[in-house]
Specification:
alpha+beta; Chorismate lyase; about 250 residues; 10 strands; 2 domains; single chain; two-stranded antiparallel sheet; Arc Repressor Mutant, subunit A
Length: about 250
């Protein structure tokens, strides 16, 4: 009976940085794969016996690193399935301005922004969510998507009052997002925010690359400069991956 060919040994794909305890170096190596997007949610990481061979260390050291990352919510250990990358939940501020680019980059993901439909001028009020704008007011309507590592994360639909920001007609929103463009030109003296759960339409599901009829979290924000309405924006997030968090501490100055 012919001998079985020797199984090819898996080549290590991670490297230690030589800084501090081994278990901490393993944590950083695994975290780097997750934050880079190479190991997305649901990805099964190499088993412990493979990792200890790669890093020339003990099972206890590898187990400690994976346990720490599991406790931090980055990994999930499933019986008979091994250890997988956890489905993360992104947190967003309930109050204040949302800088989606900073939020995505803070998670270690490469940010990109793409206009889905070219901006066009419509007559207000175009949306029932913006009742403060008189009928006939010229409004710039824009639809775009924010992505991390090329994967859609947030859909944006924005209305800009051209009586407040007439230069928006000539702005290049592919080069500079509307939120940053507006904040650099108009002071915000008032902001109103609401959050609502919705079910994804077929178009939204396709744009966000989520299952049809999946849950959404929809953030609607309106801003003013003194008494003048400036912008009304609708931000659509996949519901299973996101949450909004607010904190009020009257004892903190």
């Amino acid at each position: 009976m012919p001998a079985k060919p020797a199984r090819k040994k898996a080549e290590p794909t991670l490297a230690l940085d030589g800084n501090g305890p081994i278990y901490k170096q393993i944590e950083r190596a695994v975290r780097g794969e997750i934050l880079s997007g190479r190991w997305p949610p649901g990805h099964r990481i190499p088993p412990e016996h493979t990792l200890l061979q790669w890093f020339s260390t003990t099972r206890a050291t590898v187990s400690k690193a994976l346990t720490k990352m599991t406790e931090a919510g980055l990994l999930e250990r499933r019986r008979k399935q091994g250890t997988i990358v956890a489905q993360s939940t992104e947190s967003h501020a309930v109050i204040g301005f949302l800088d989606i680019r900073k939020e995505i980059e803070a998670k270690g993901r490469e940010y990109s922004y793409r206009v889905l439909r070219s901006a066009k001028i419509v007559a207000g009020p175009k949306t029932a969510a913006w009742p403060e704008v008189p009928a006939g007011t010229p409004i710039l309507h824009l639809q775009a998507v924010h992505s991390g590592f090329g994967k859609p994360e947030v859909l944006e639909e924005r209305f800009i009052n051209l009586e407040a920001a007439p230069d928006a007609v000539h702005a290049d929103f592919e080069a500079e997002t509307p939120n940053i463009w507006l904040l650099a030109r108009l002071p915000c003296t008032r902001l109103r925010h609401s959050i609502k759960a919705e079910i994804a339409t077929a178009e939204q599901a396709q744009q966000l690359q989520i299952p049809a009829n999946g849950p959404l979290l929809v953030s609607r924000r309106r801003t003013w400069a003194d008494a003048l309405p400036v912008t009304c924006v609708k931000l659509v997030y996949p519901g299973e991956r996101n949450e909004f968090v607010g904190e009020f501490n009257p004892l903190e100055s």
